[in-house]
Amino acid sequence: MTLTPSTTTTTTLIPVTLLTGFLGSGKTTMLNHIMQQPAMADTLVIINEFGEIALDHLLVTHSTENVVKEMSNGCICCTIRGDLAKTLRDLTWRFSRNGKRQFHRVLIETTGLADPAPIIHTLMTDRKIASRYRLDGIVATIDMATGNQTLSTYHEAIKQAAVADCLLLTKADLATPQDKAVLLQRLDEINPAAFRYQVEQGQIEAEKLLDLGLFSPHKKTPDVERWLKEEAYLTVSARTHVYHRHDELNHNHSHAKVHHDHIHDINRHDDHIRAFCFSVDKPITEESYLAWLDLLMAYVGSNILRVKGILNIAGYDHPMVIHGVQHIFHPPVPLPSWPSEDLRSKIVFITRDVERESVEWIFKFITNTPKRS
């Protein structure tokens, strides 16, 4: 891992939206609806299927001129990743006329069983792809009627919800009020910062699903505060602290009738997902930062689901933005200036079974360890 900034002009890269969501959660219905809208007119759709017969693409009713149907037969992670890489590399010449590219945005719909991480890694690590495309946002559909059971049963569904920038809540008319309340509070713990919309019959404005990343061609400066949403992680941390205190009281006074919070029990014993923001007041040395992340990735890399942050690195006169999924990090991107007078380094984590205290301890260990001569 290095801190060498990306030299690519981020705003000129082709934005990619990743549409994910578990089986039957309404991805195809929603895709049909948004592809009829003017905002998606210059969008190329890639449908990644798994199996002998691809069924989902048969339900996509918009023009087939801007739909690429990719079927994979083999290891669902390796094959889809390989197929997708080849497809993205070939798109610019397959969909060009007179030397001019005929699309300005890509949407990838994954199979419902897909772990989104390998696809995100492809966008980050393949040099030919990273030089042409950028991940704009991850959108996940969640069935409000069956979402709780799905999250409890399938690890892929947890990861889809945890790494998303936007959560689309479908089939609310089939869910009981209790199902809705439990699911919403559960999602607060899994991914507190994601934009959240309730969708009926797949109907939603396409604009709500676009420009979810740090960079937008319509804005001169990156909207770091919207991208990080630090306040959402502070809120969930405070709520978790209350839950822990509540459990302590119940443990110490077992004879008293104390109501256990059902949602906290689900999160603690089932999802194992932690969402928090780690901040550092003083500038971080480049050496300390790299050693910290290297050690963190070495010990718990597979359980670091997503990382986003803005860094104050000593010796740099501008902030650096980082973005990682599991053990793969996109090259840091320098920003032209700080978004506010707050010059702290701030990194948000979504993890599985990795507590905030562990992240802080590793950082303090690195920064307090004397340098070898």
Layout: helices, strands, pairs:
Blueprint: E1 14-21, H1 27-34, E2 43-50, E3 67-72, H2 76-94, E4 96-97, E5 100-101, E6 105-109, H3 117-125, H4 127-130, E7 133-143, H5 147-153, H6 155-162, E8 166-170, H7 177-190, E9 195-198, H8 224-228, H9 230-252, H10 262-271, E10 273-280, H11 286-300, E11 304-311, E12 320-325, E13 328-334, E14 345-352, H12 356-368
Structural class: alpha/beta
> What is CATH's topology name of the largest domain?
Rossmann fold
What is the rounded distance between the termini? 23 Å
Task: Outline the biggest β-sheet.
Answer: 7 strands, parallel
Topology pattern, helix = H, strand = E:
EHEEHEEEHHEHHEHEHHHEHEEEEH
> How many runs of DSSP E, i.e. beta strands?
14
The CATH superfamily label of the largest domain reads P-loop containing nucleotide triphosphate hydrolases
CATH uppermost class of the largest domain:
Alpha Beta
Spatial strand sequence of the major β-sheet: 3-2-6-1-7-8-9
Low-pLDDT stretches:
50-64, 71-80, 241-270
Q: What is the averaged pLDDT score? A: 78
The Rg value, from CA coordinates, equals 21 Å
The CATH architecture classification of the largest domain is 3-Layer(aba) Sandwich
Shape: globular
